[in-house]
Specification:
Helix content is 38%, strand content 15%. The model has no long low-confidence stretch (mean pLDDT 93). α4 runs parallel beside α6. β11 and β12 form a beta hairpin. It is α/β, with parallel strands linked by helices. The strands form nine sheets. It has a seven-stranded mixed beta sheet, covered by helices on one side. A six-stranded parallel beta sheet has the order 29-30-28-27-31-32. Strands 17-16-15-18-19 form a five-stranded parallel beta sheet, with helices on both faces.
């Protein structure tokens, strides 16, 4: 009874927060609940029955195993529960989605041909989350002449699990809610500082936007009970930034509908819109939940009578409203005409939101059911030796005669599954591809584990070359939340077959390295496809896609992903970098020059950036590919030279070997396998059998951008522009300013060198600059705190070997300790240098933060409101993003330096340089 009493006490505690009982995932508590159900006169029996029916998580959770077995006992008559008849037990099994429930149903269905077997078969015909162990049983029974197995396979071959679902309504009524003006980041929908609660969906839902917004959404629902609330990013893009599934989960929790009456707090069918559309990563999560994402285009550039764009005093295009989506506006989505209406007035064509494939996702309640459904249909047809009937929308295939392939198109064609030999596809084609590398990060990992359990997956797909579970987002502070969540996550992932940053057995040293750096190292083939649970999964080898926790789970479970081949934008360079410029300045200038060349249109958004920076090693090139998330690109590809690629692969091999030496490899020897694959790839390049990946000379791009290095004369700073009178222009990453703009007198309260944007050379720059300053002034004195967090332990080890770490230690006032990690987040900073533990640190914003209202100068990636620094009364927090030397000098001076001070400080320092190469072949 003790575990049950503990649960009851937890329920009372949650009531004080306005929460319902937490969904049950443990076997011990579920067993105790069943014991109380069996005890007819038990005081808690009625309550226990409700917990069992309505509050036990499905899939492969330990609770689901126990629940499925008890339902089997009820069906077989071995247990009698008045509230749960055998027929109701079958219904409950039908909502458990796979794993133990499928095993029970197969046990019953394949046992005989009686009434129970037929009922079990009818339920099985609705299920799609079957794996090899399940299909092997069906296959064997079929070959042994089992009639029930034959009926189930025939149903699967005809995809009755899909065809018998209700059709999507022709008209969907919505009422709008403006969630914000300008871009809406997933930080607004699921704040990073609440990452610890993401796996507790109801609790985490309370952090969406603001309590006031939640109340306003509920008021709209009360006023319009027959309509769905559509969240809108007015004059912006919906869902920019991080790839967290929790963002769309929160939207669905507040505005969607329940996926099942027996699965608590898992909602589907959210509807969202944005003036500039939906961020590609966020749109994937909308598809996962069977929702609708609409590119509203309700504001456009205003033109004069001659068609010329009208500009304001800042030379920016003036926008005019085409139609209103103000909060409370009632609109109609017509799924037949693919149009959006206000009453009888047609507003816009929304066919891109309602493609045949997306209509299938909506009908099935999410994209996973379609992915698994197609696989089970193909399996059944093969076993029955028939051609599967055409049920699902045919994949779109685009081929243009005489047109070459971009680098992305080559990778997608190489990795495509089920493509007829010799067939070539161009951008716009729908493909299913094999995934080579998968990454899961720690603040979304528990959700990935939940998704794997919901998919009934128990082991990593053998197709995947390597997968890694990070510990970087919770590296800064080993607090009670981290201690409760992370060991459980690492154990699950380790048993699933993933290489884990922390050893569940405690035998190897915890590696809190930034996930993107590790994924960049374990990617050992530039032809690879990488899926990672973070928007900065942007490797400089291969093509990488940041993804939500569900898509990561799907890649781990199946080794596959499905998506259209994106269009590409080619980025090349001309001219020469100035001696005092750092490559980070080139990255920011790329965004600025692109916007200038295309009259403010972001041609990168939703596309793959093919960047020709092949003379840079993978570590340095990652600074560019990483920032493409801030450019709103879907992904990026770095075109590398043979010699450079070989050197990058050798570095990757050495770092993978370090992981092996630490004891991180598993029984499948995944890490050793990666080294073997790297050796093979190096040999292919050296012998000329297969040179480094290059696009065809006659490839076609959406756009081509040429960046002029000659005009980059000053450090370039990405500014959140927090006081812009046009609210939609704040926190966009599109405002790039040179150093002189700030006049050398803008106060800086804290500087941060860290995040995935930096590499070993950045830490060497810090060391060299401090030595320079000491030589020039006789001392190193900070007028603002300087927080330094190396992205990986490997970098620290290399800095120690090269003599730089001792200088950083010399000038620091704090150095992290693995033996005594911090248990609480720092809230106050002194004017010293802090050497923090490898990991995300301030960039993530879930543990460490700057003081409210601070002006922060950082090398990190995000400048969203509240991410690194929150506002305070009378002063907005702002996080400006710049190169390492600018950040360090800002801490020394306590302000942004002027150009002369900057040039003096970097004199003689080896900044990260880049020399363009010809793209002609």
């Amino acid at each position: 009874m003790s575990i049950y009493n503990d649960y009851i006490q937890e329920i009372e505690d949650r009531k004080t927060q306005g929460l319902h009982p937490k969904p049950i995932d443990g076997a011990e508590l579920t067993s105790e609940i069943i014991s109380q159900i069996k005890s007819v006169n038990n005081f808690n029996r009625e309550e226990a029955v409700n917990f069992f029916i309505f509050n036990t998580l499905p899939g492969t959770t330990a609770a689901a195993v126990v629940k499925a077995q008890f339902l089997k006992e009820i069906i077989l008559g071995e247990a009698v529960v008045a509230e749960i008849t055998p027929d109701f037990a079958f219904e409950l099994l039908s909502h458990m989605k796979g794993g133990p429930s499928i095993k029970v149903l197969l046990d019953i269905a394949l046992a005989d041909n009686g009434d129970r077997a037929k009922k079990a078969a009818e339920v099985l015909k609705t299920q799609v989350f079957l794996y090899d162990a399940d299909t092997d049983r069906l296959k064997e029974a079929y070959h042994n002449g089992n009639e029930i197995a034959t009926q189930i396979l025939e149903s699967y071959a005809n995809a009755e699990f899909f065809t018998k679902l209700p059709e999507v309504a022709e008209e969907i009524k919505v009422v709008t809610y403006i969630a914000g003006i300008g871009d809406i980041s997933t930080d607004l929908l699921s704040p990073g500082n609440q990452a610890h609660s993401r796996s507790d969906r109801e609790l985490h839902g309370k952090c969406m936007i603001t309590p006031q917004a939640q109340a306003e959404i509920k008021a709209l629902q009360a006023q319009h009970p027959d309509k769905s609330v559509m969240l809108v990013a007015e004059k912006g893009t919906m869902g920019v930034g991080s790839s967290r599934m929790s963002g769309v989960n929160n939207v669905a929790l507040w505005t969607g509908k329940r996926s099942s009456p027996y699965i608590p707090f898992v909602n589907i069918a959210p509807i969202v819109g944005g003036t500039n559309g939906i961020s590609p990563i966020f749109l994937t999560t909308v598809d996962v939940t069977g929702g609708i994402g609409i590119d509203l285009q309700n504001w456009v550039k205003k033109t004069d009578e001659n068609g010329n764009v009208i500009r304001n005093e800042n030379d920016e295009p003036v926008l005019e409203e085409v139609f209103s989506v103000a909060t409370g506006t009632v609109l109609t989505i017509n799924t037949r005409t693919k149009k959006l209406y206000n009453g009888d007035q047609e507003l816009i064509n929304i066919s891109k939101a309602l493609t045949p494939q997306k209509m299938e996702f909506i009908k099935a309640g999410g994209s996973y059911a379609i992915v698994f459904g197609k696989k089970i249909q193909t399996f059944a047809a093969k076993i029955l030796n028939i051609e599967a009937p055409t049920v699902f929308a045919p994949a779109k295939e685009v081929y243009i005669e005489g047109q070459g392939l971009t680098a992305a198109e080559k990778i997608f064609n190489r990795n495509a599954v089920g493509l007829t030999q010799g067939k070539i596809l161009h951008a716009g084609s729908d493909v299913r591809v094999e995934v080579n590398i998968v990454g899961s990060q720690d603040t979304t990992g528990l959700m990935t584990a939940q998704e794997l359990e919901a998919m009934a997956a128990t082991v990593i797909s053998p197709i995947v070359d390597g997968a890694y579970q990070s510990g970087c987002h919770t590296a800064s502070v080993w607090d009670k939340k981290a201690q409760a969540n992370i060991p459980k996550l690492m154990k699950f992932m380790n048993e699933f077959g993933v290489i884990t940053a922390r050893d569940p057995k405690g035998e190897y040293h915890a590696m809190t390295d930034v996930i993107h750096k590790v994924l960049n190292d374990i990617t050992i083939d530039e032809w690879a496809i990488i899926i990672g649970g973070d928007s900065h999964t942007r490797m400089s080898k291969g093509v990488a896609f940041g993804a939500d926790s569900g898509t990561v789970a799907l890649a781990l479970a199946t080794g596959e992903a499905a998506m259209p081949i994106p269009e590409s934008v080619k980025v090349t360079f001309r001219g020469e970098m100035k001696p005092h410029m750092d490559f980070r300045d080139v990255v920011h200038a790329t965004q600025l020059q692109m916007l200038q060349q295309f009259d403010g249109e972001n041609v990168f958004q939703g596309r793959i950036i093919e960047v020709h920076i092949g003379t840079l090693l993978a570590d340095q090139a990652f600074t560019f590919t990483d920032w493409t998330a801030e450019m709103k690109a879907k992904a990026s590809i770095c075109i590398s030279q043979d010699d450079t690629l070989i050197e990058s692969l050798e570095i990757a091999k050495s770092r993978i070997q370090i992981m092996i030496d630490k004891g991180m490899d598993n029984h499948n020897q995944v890490l050793q396998g990666l080294i073997n694959k790297a050796n093979k790839r190096i040999e292919e390049i050296k012998t000329g059998i297969k040179p480094a990946l290059m696009p065809d000379t006659n490839a076609k791009y959406y756009a081509e951008v040429v960046i002029d290095l000659d005009i980059i004369n000053e450090p370039m700073i990405a500014d959140p522009d927090v006081n812009n009178v046009d609210v939609s222009k704040r926190y966009t990453h599109d405002t790039i300013r040179d150093l002189t703009f700030y006049g050398g007198d803008k106060k800086v309260d804290l500087s941060f060198v860290g995040s995935c944007m930096v590499h070993k050379d950045d830490l060497k720059i810090v060391s060299q600059m401090l030595k320079n300053i000491e030589n020039q002034t006789g001392k190193v004195e900070f007028k603002a705190p300087l927080v330094v967090a190396a992205p990986t332990y490997n970098i620290i080890d290399e800095l120690k070997a090269e003599g730089d770490w001792e200088y950083l230690q010399k000038y620091s006032g704090f150095e992290f300790s693995d033996a005594l990690p911090k248990s609480t987040a720092r809230t106050e900073y002194e004017n010293i240098m802090y050497l923090e533990r490898p990991g995300c640190n301030l960039c993530m914003g879930n543990q460490e933060k700057a003081a409210k209202g601070d002006t922060v100068m950082a090398t990190s990636t995000r400048l969203f409101q509240g991410r690194v620094v929150e506002d305070r009364d009378g002063k907005k927090g702002e996080s400006l993003l710049a190169s390492t030397p600018v950040v360090v000098l800002s801490a020394i001076l306590g302000r942004i330096p002027n150009i002369e001070e900057y040039k003096m400080a970097v004199d003689g320092i080896n900044l990260t340089k880049f020399t363009p190469i010809s793209t002609k072949q």
